[in-house]
Amino acid sequence: MVKSIIKLKNVSKFYYSKGVIATGFTKVNLEFSMGEFVAIVGESGSGKSTLLNVISGLDTYEEGEMYINGSETSHYSEDDFEDYRRKYIGNIFQNFNLVNSYTVYQNVELVLLLNGAKKKNIRKKVIDLIKKVGLYKFRNTKVSKLSGGQKQRVAIARAMAKDTPIIIADEPTGNLDSKSALGIIKLLSEISKDKLVIIVTHNYEQVEDYVTRKIKMHDGRVLEDRIIKEHQDVTLDQARVYKNIRFLSKIRLGIRNAFNIVPKFLLVLLVYLFITASLMSEYGSFKESEYISSKSGYNQYFQNTEDTRIVIKKNDGSAFNDDDYAKIKSINNVSSIVYNDLLLDTSIDLSDDNYWISATVNNISNFNKKLDYGRMPENDNEIIVYGNKDDYYIGYLKDEILDKELYLRDLYTGELDKSVGLKIVGISYNDNSNNYYGNSEIYVSDKIIDNLTYQINQQYSKLTVMFQGKYYDVNNYDQNFRIVPKRDIQDGSVYISSDLNYLCKNENCINSTLSIDVNNLYYSDTLELKVTKTYDKKNMESLVGIKDYDTYNGNIFISSNDYNKMFNRDNYQSSVNVLNVEDIDSTITKLNKAGYNTLKISDTLVQEGNTEVLKIMRTIVTIILVVVLFFISYFVIRVILKSRNVYFATIRMLGANRKVSLQLLIIELLTVANLAYFTFIGILKLNELSVINVGIFNTILKYLKINDYVVIYAILIFISYLISLKFAKKLFKNSQKGYSFYKIQLSKNNKKILTNKNI
Fold it and tell me: Which of 54, 166, 260, 471 is deepest in the core (most CB within 10 A)?
């Protein structure tokens, strides 16, 4: 069992600066025991504070040996000295070095949390210590509002809370009035009864009635080491064992530090709001550019390339029924359904002798645009034309064409069907410069759509005629077996050219059978017909009403009902239009889960511009922006947090190593970063609710998706982490062994010496 807790044997301390060697103290031989109250005195520069720093492990020594509880320390590393200070040393400073933004309770609590205590287990101990130093009624008062004597009492309570065997006090009464100073000396005298208390003082008369030993130094040497009075021997078997700070305590302290100084918090919050707004604005602008670029694409199969359109089919390939459409309509974000969506991708012609409009077809019930001229349709034959205002007919001749009756040109024969006229009663203009002349859209009634369905389906079907055991492909380039529907022909009958009689028995085809096979992507069918008449040049006009024998010879004529029967079928493919294109992917997911195959039209477009270049540009600009934002925010935050240097020095003296200090800084900045991020999200929500109206916020809301917000959040967290690392590096940049920083911060009396030395 060792009587001396600290022993110095021929210990010397030197400083090196620009080739000059300065002596701190030389060949010091001292022993200190538990229960002593030791005063070290001497004039300025005598080495007393330097000796105190070596004893407390704040400084190293170059010569001799210092023993701690009987163990040598000359081989100690930085970690060893940190462990020594943590287990053995409690510091009380002339300038207090309290956390001024903390209350009295929080300052005393801090040392216990840093050394692994649970918050719920320490309240009684903290209160008892505060009572012991006579500050109970100030327990919830911020330290910044206390007098000098009260602050020093808080520092003593904090040192007692650490419960180390050694208390080191450097000029603890230097900034106090005589009454407050006497109270502090009495308190230290009481503490020394079961600890070793060593103080440095320039006013020995103030402490001589209480100390048990006096050490006088001059020019780096001990001139006097005198016992003033006997002390009670106290034996220390082993220093207290400390635990690492708990995770929840780190979180608690980090969050507390984020908010405890309101001006600092608001300034850092503004910095992070600036970072968040910059990142989201940049992302939103690029997303808008990509979106505009994507809309300028084209597809040779789809004429309607609205980004709100989704093409759907049933997984089993069967036709849609009413239950299917009811299920689809019930899905959120579905604004409309185009039942036969082939209409959207097939151009039809409306014309007469003077006007001509080429357009795709949509149902009038799906019209949700602004009507610029005219009115909404009231009758089945009334339509709305939607197109570009630069279109010659609907733009420049809008007054002439409004209320004009035009006729559909048959997709198969190319002839005008003047049996039904379509009157243009409304005109709507789009704002897309790429929607040029000849690429308009007409909105018509269900009756007109039914009229067009057979023509549309016919375009996408392959027809084959089987006659007299041979198959003949039907196309518009070959007159033979080209099919022409006529209203006056009886259902089930077919008229063929008399030139085909040679194929039949006895060169007479009357009552023979002719089959028409129809095949497309969705279905196949066969129409059985009986040849009831044959035509030639003489009777063609009387049978079918056509004079041009040479052009139509070889065609087969069937009834319009039979022709429509082949193509007026159920819908095997439809299109869904979504209300909000931002949510189109989630709508597609719901449609897939409901049993439908989907195709997002915007994914099928061939881009006229290079969107990959835009994406590369976005990545490069984002990286540059992140770097710029990092440096701007770092320099601003470094200035704002400069006042935090003393805080981090203090917690290191209380038992927090560099790693813990960094973690507390990271938690502090991440807390503000998260608050700034979600505050900005709240501002965006206010913009969405029209409480405020900022243009760039509308762009962000429109074009950013969940994954974009996640990426921006990750970037913000990454920037915060980098700022913490760089700030911490700056914080400890003067240290090779981890001592200089907090020595400079805490040892005010030796500041000039310590900043000039090189260790």
Answer: 166
